[in-house]
C-alpha cells in the first residue's frame, strides 16, 4: 500500500513528475534542432515511424518488415545524421545546465559596438574578414594554430589585422570579452551540401565553427563587401553596422524568457542555409 500526501498517492505524483520531466527534456531538445537542417530530418523520421505504425494493420507486410529492420539500427542512424547537433548539445551540457538557460557573459555593448563599426569599415574597404565572438563554449583548440595576442580590443587594432599587408589577414580573429585573444586562426570548414554555392571559404569556415560551438561569427566578403553574421548555423546577411550591433547584443544577452538561448533575429535579414 503506497503512501499519500494530502490524499494524493505518492506513486501518482512520481508518475506525473516523470512525464513532466521527459516532456521538458524533449522540448529542450527540439529547441536545439529548431531552425537547423536537423529539423526536416526529424520530420522525415516521424513520417517513417507513422508509416510503420499504419503498415501492419492494413497488411503492408513487406513495408513493415523493411521499416522494422531500419528501426533496429535507429540509434546508429540518429548518431550519423545528427552528429553535429549531438556534438553541440553535449558541449553545452558541459559548460552550462541543459534544462535552464543562463545569462550570457559578454564584453558589453561598447565592445560589440567597436566590432560592428570596425566590420562596417572593413566592408567599405572590401577587406575580407572573419571575426569570432565567444559565448559559452571555449575556443582554445582553434587558437592553437593562430597567434595569441591577449590584447585590449580597439577599432584600429582589429582593422589592421585584416589589411592585405598583414600576415594574419587570411585567418580568423577570436574575441573573448573585451579582448582579442588570437588572430590568424584556422576554423573548421563546413561540408553542408545546402550551403549557397556563391558563398566562399570564409563563409564555410564560419558555418563550420558555429556547427561545433555556440560562437557568433562575422564574415566580411572580399568580393562584395557585404557583412554576414552566422549564429548556430543561421545566416543573417547584408547587414549594416546598426543591424549587426543589434543582432550581436540580442544574441549575446540571450533569448527572451521561455525560449532558451536560441539565435534571435529579424526576419528581414535572416536566411537559412
Can you describe this structure in just a few lines?
This protein is an alpha+beta fold and 273 residues long. The chain has helices at residues 10-33, 38-55, 61-72, 74-81, 83-95, 109-124, 140-143, 155-161, 201-212, 241-253; strands spanning 4-5, 8-9, 129-133, 147-152, 172-176, 179-185, 216-220, 227-231, 234-236, 270-271.
Helical residue percent? 40-55%
**What value does the average pLDDT take?**
80
Morphology: elongated
Question: What is the C-alpha radius of gyration, as a whole number of Å?
Answer: 23 Å
- Biggest sheet, spatial arrangement of strands: 4-6-5-3-7-8-9-10
For the secondary structure, the number of strands is: 10
**Distance from first to last alpha carbon:** 57 Å
- CATH fold naming of the largest domain: YojJ-like (1
Task: Classify the beta-strand content into a percent band.
Answer: 15-25%
**Can you write the helix and strand succession as a string?**
EEHHHHHHEHEHEEHEEEHE
Describe the model:
The chain has 273 residues and is an alpha+beta fold. It folds into two domains: 4-95, no CATH class; 109-271, YojJ-like (1, CATH 3.40.1700. It has helices at 10-33, 38-55, 61-72, 74-81, 83-95, 109-124, 140-143, 155-161, 201-212, 241-253, and strands spanning 4-5, 8-9, 129-133, 147-152, 172-176, 179-185, 216-220, 227-231, 234-236, 270-271. An eight-stranded mixed sheet has the order 4-6-5-3-7-8-9-10, sandwiched between helices. The chain has a two-stranded antiparallel ribbon with strand order 1-2. Helix 6 packs across helix 8 (155-161). The longest helix is centred in the first third of the chain and has 24 residues, at 10-33.
Amino acid at each position: 500500500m503506497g503512501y499519500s500526501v494530502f490524499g494524493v498517492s505518492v506513486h501518482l505524483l512520481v508518475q506525473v513528475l516523470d512525464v513532466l520531466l521527459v516532456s521538458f527534456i524533449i522540448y529542450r531538445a527540439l529547441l536545439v534542432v529548431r531552425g537547423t537542417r536537423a529539423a526536416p530530418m526529424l520530420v522525415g523520421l516521424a513520417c517513417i515511424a507513422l508509416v510503420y505504425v499504419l503498415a501492419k494493420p492494413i497488411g503492408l507486410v513487406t513495408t513493415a518488415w523493411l521499416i522494422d529492420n531500419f528501426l533496429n539500427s535507429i540509434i546508429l542512424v540518429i548518431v550519423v545524421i545528427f552528429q553535429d547537433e549531438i556534438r553541440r548539445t553535449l558541449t553545452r551540457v558541459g559548460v552550462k545546465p541543459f534544462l535552464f538557460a543562463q545569462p550570457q557573459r559578454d564584453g558589453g555593448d561598447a565592445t560589440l559596438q567597436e566590432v560592428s563599426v570596425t566590420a562596417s569599415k572593413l566592408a567599405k574597404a572590401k577587406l575580407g574578414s572573419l571575426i569570432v565572438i565567444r559565448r559559452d563554449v571555449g575556443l582554445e583548440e582553434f587558437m592553437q594554430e593562430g597567434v595569441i595576442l591577449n590584447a585590449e580590443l580597439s577599432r584600429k587594432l582589429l582593422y589592421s589585422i585584416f589589411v592585405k599587408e598583414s600576415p594574419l589577414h587570411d585567418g580568423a580573429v577570436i574575441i573573448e570579452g573585451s579582448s582579442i585573444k588570437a588572430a590568424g586562426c584556422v576554423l573548421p570548414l563546413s561540408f553542408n551540401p545546402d550551403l549557397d554555392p556563391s558563398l566562399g571559404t570564409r563563409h564555410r569556415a564560419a558555418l563550420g565553427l558555429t556547427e561545433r560551438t555556440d560562437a557568433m561569427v562575422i564574415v566580411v566578403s572580399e568580393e562584395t563587401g557585404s557583412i554576414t553574421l552566422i549564429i548556430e548555423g543561421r545566416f543573417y546577411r547584408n547587414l549594416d553596422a546598426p543591424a549587426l550591433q543589434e543582432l550581436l547584443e540580442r544574441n549575446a544577452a540571450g533569448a527572451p524568457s521561455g525560449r532558451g538561448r536560441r539565435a534571435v533575429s529579424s526576419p528581414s535579414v535572416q536566411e537559412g542555409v
